[in-house]
């Protein structure tokens, strides 16, 4: 689609209907569009939040209110992404059909007054949703401003416990397992006397404690979200195809931490991935950074901004759209960290460097009412352009200058890191890790579970790769096994698979084959421990990989405090490196020990080992490495792999250097300085500055100011 390749789409969500005083068609609309045009905006998103405006009463539609916005946008050369308004239902629908309210527990509806309180699999909801979607899309699909559609908004917020959802879950189990006897065997329901005599015996999920049930329930919930978004996408495509608009995309905006999102499956139903990377600004983007910030739906740390972008690219292994990101302060009224000068440019170019083809802020004008009153927009409450507008306008000028040389980028990667949604769900319901290192629950004298155990393990390696100056790709299990292991090893010489606990035999065998074919496989804790049903495997751990790794273990422990470690076999380890959170009791059978615990008990076990396997290598990390250990491990992994070294590495601790290939086959380089302190970078080859057009020779020195970024194309 040409509008996704000509240049980076740049803009914001626009809600003229939220204005407290102005009416559509007034001077304010024209002024908004003038300011957008002056800031280099090329796209706005509209319409996705106001079903009650589109349909103020049951079956009574008001579709004309958006016409002036679309007409005005088109006149100003601004494209439009039109949203379907199904994530926030009108109150007349809530009154007529209270049964569509989402139950967070059986028989306990969440109530109304927020958003996304809906059982979006309920037939009554789907009837009304289809009706309003059809009316909106049929009205505006032919408008020349509309380049695409966003169906719904940040789906997957609730795990639905409505009775009809549970009954459909039982139907799914019946179709999957066939008989209750088969389910009894597969789930091990002899335990605690849970064997079923009939499907009617299955208990509701509220009081469930069995992990096999939990995993099936989470898979089913994710399928509801995927089916709902896919249903909307098909509905919209059916309308656009009838009128001959084959140039419009269909997407949804993903909030990746939502409970029922399985992103790699969800995006199969969409034309392009889109998501909402929100991140802490100000000192949250400073390098160097030794702070182990917790991650939530917002991220903290420059490394996490890149990791989020890599995850978005990894959903489809393709360029993606940013449908929402920080315009100013994000979150609620107590979270106010508007960016320092230059940080908007830096963050946007970081996202583009990892494959973003649209940067769209949430939102244009800061709202004057509602729960998001203090979630800052491009314009402040006064609606007078200020510092934020000026900074974002400078970025708009960047994108205009760069044109199509930064679109459809394929990011480079030194290491691939596995992301398993199913393992994430399993470790959320039955975590491996605890907060024992922080003292746990003093009142109960017991540690409390870390329900982000999967992310805790995976983030350690993602952070380690970033701190080592490496570029990381995110990959999902289904994407791995779709490619021959030897082919993947040739393209991705280092692969990290940690906390990959929910895996079938074929997936684990693929990992072994990857190493045998020349890849360097780094296995982390819990990988190969359970099967696809969440059952602990009978084999020595890590199952299917113990022989290739040359190690096995039978016991494991949560670490109350980080443990110091010592290097062996010439491994380079910085002073103060620690093993954290967890220790597998790794017994060495036929491997080289790289790192060992410095502890009177745990010293008998290896912390990190390595072994040549086939033409590749398997490294086993039986702990969650701290920042220093993770960085050292990733640096060493690159020296042991077949990956070609590059002179394009950060010249100071405040810098990042990333790269990608554009649609013209050019290698694009991005050099960032994430600090108040200026820095310099000596060019290893001749380049052209994409933004200024200036040329520089190999050996020339770039001067980077505070919070600065340069975008370069290699000329050698």
Keywords:
716 residues; alpha/beta; TIM Barrel; Rossmann fold; 11-stranded mixed beta sheet; 8-stranded parallel beta sheet; globular
Distance separating the two termini: 31 Å
CATH uppermost class of the largest domain: Alpha Beta
From the helix content, strand content and strand pairing, which structural class follows? Answer: alpha/beta
Our Rg estimate from Cα atoms comes to 26 Å
* Number of discrete helical segments: 19
Number of folding domains? 4
Query: What's the count of strands?
Result: 31
Quick one: CATH superfamily of the largest domain?
Glycosidases
In the CATH hierarchy, the third-tier topology of the largest domain is known as: TIM Barrel
Overall average pLDDT:
95
The rough form would be described as globular
Question: Which architecture of the largest domain would the CATH scheme give at its second level?
Answer: Alpha-Beta Barrel
Helix amount, in percent?
25-40%
As a percent range, the share of strand residues is 15-25%
Low-confidence residue ranges: none
């Amino acid at each position: 689609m040409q509008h996704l390749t000509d240049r980076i789409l740049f803009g914001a969500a626009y809600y003229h209907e939220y204005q407290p005083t102005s009416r559509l068609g007034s001077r304010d609309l024209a002024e908004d569009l003038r300011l957008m045009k002056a800031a280099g905006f090329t796209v706005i998103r509209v319409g996705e939040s106001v079903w009650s405006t589109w349909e103020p009463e049951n079956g009574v539609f008001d579709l004309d209110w958006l016409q002036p916005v679309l007409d005005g946008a088109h006149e100003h050369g601004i494209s439009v992404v039109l949203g379907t308004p199904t994530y926030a239902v009108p109150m007349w629908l809530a009154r007529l059909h209270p049964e569509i309210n989402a139950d967070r527990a059986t028989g306990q509806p969440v109530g109304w007054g927020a958003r996304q309180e809906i059982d979006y699999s309920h037939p009554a909801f789907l009837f009304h949703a289809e009706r309003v979607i059809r009316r909106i899309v049929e009205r505006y699909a032919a408008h020349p401003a509309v380049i695409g559609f966003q169906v719904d908004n940040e789906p997957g917020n609730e795990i639905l416990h409505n009775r009809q959802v549970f009954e459909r879950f039982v139907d799914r189990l019946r179709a999957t397992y066939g008989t209750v006897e088969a389910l009894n065997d597969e789930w091990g329901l002899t335990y605690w006397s849970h064997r079923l005599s009939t499907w009617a015996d299955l208990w509701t999920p509220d009081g469930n404690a069995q992990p096999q049930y939990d995993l099936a329930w989470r898979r089913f919930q994710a399928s509801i979200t995927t089916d709902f978004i896919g249903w909307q996408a098909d509905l919209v495509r059916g309308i656009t195809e009838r009128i001959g608009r084959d140039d419009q995309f269909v997407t949804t905006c993903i909030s990746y931490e939502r409970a029922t999102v399985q992103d790699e499956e969800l995006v199969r139903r969409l034309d392009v991935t889109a998501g909402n990377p929100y991140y802490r600004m100000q000192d949250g983007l400073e390098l160097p950074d030794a702070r182990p910030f917790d991650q939530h739906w917002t991220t903290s740390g420059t490394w996490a901004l890149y990791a989020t972008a890599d995850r978005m690219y990894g959903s489809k292994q393709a360029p993606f759209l940013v449908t929402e990101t920080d315009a100013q302060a994000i979150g609620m009224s107590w979270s106010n960290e508007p960016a320092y000068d230059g940080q908007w440019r830096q963050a946007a170019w970081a996202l583009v460097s990892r494959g973003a083809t649209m940067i769209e802020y949430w939102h244009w004008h800061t709202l004057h009412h509602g729960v998001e009153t203090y979630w800052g927009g491009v314009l402040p409450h006064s609606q007078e352009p200020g510092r934020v507008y000026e900074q974002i306008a400078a970025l708009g000028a960047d994108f205009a200058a760069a044109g199509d040389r930064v679109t459809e980028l394929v990011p480079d990667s030194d290491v691939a890191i596995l992301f398993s949604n199913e393992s994430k769900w399993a470790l959320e319901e039955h975590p491996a890790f605890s907060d024992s290192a922080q003292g746990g629950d003093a009142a109960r004298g017991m540690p409390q579970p870390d329900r982000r155990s999967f992310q805790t393990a995976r983030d350690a390696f993602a952070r380690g790769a970033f701190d080592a100056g490496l570029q990381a790709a995110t990959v999902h299990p289904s994407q791995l096994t779709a490619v021959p292991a030897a082919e993947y090893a040739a393209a991705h010489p280092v692969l990290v698979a940690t906390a990959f606990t929910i895996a079938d035999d074929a997936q684990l065998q693929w990992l072994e084959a990857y190493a045998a074919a020349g890849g360097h496989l780094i296995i982390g804790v819990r990988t190969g421990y359970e099967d696809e049903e969440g059952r602990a495997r009978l084999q020595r751990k890590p199952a299917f990989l113990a022989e290739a790794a040359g190690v096995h273990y039978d016991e494991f422990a949560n670490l109350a405090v980080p443990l110091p470690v010592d290097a062996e076999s010439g491994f380079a380890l910085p002073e103060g490196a620690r093993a954290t959170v967890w220790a597998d009791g790794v017994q060495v059978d036929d491997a080289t020990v790289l790192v060992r615990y410095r502890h009177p008990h745990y010293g008998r076990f290896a912390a990190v080992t390595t072994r040549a396997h086939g033409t590749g290598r398997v490294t086993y990390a039986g702990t969650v490495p701290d920042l220093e250990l993770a960085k050292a491990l990733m640096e060493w992994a690159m020296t042991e792999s077949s990956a070609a070294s590059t002179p394009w590495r950060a010249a100071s601790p405040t810098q990042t250097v990333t790269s990608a290939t554009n649609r013209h086959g050019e290698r694009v380089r991005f050099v960032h300085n994430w600090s108040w302190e200026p820095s310099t970078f000596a060019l290893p080859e001749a380049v052209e500055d994409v933004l200024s057009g200036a040329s520089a020779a190999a050996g020339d020195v770039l001067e980077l100011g505070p919070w600065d970024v340069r975008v370069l194309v290699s000329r050698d």
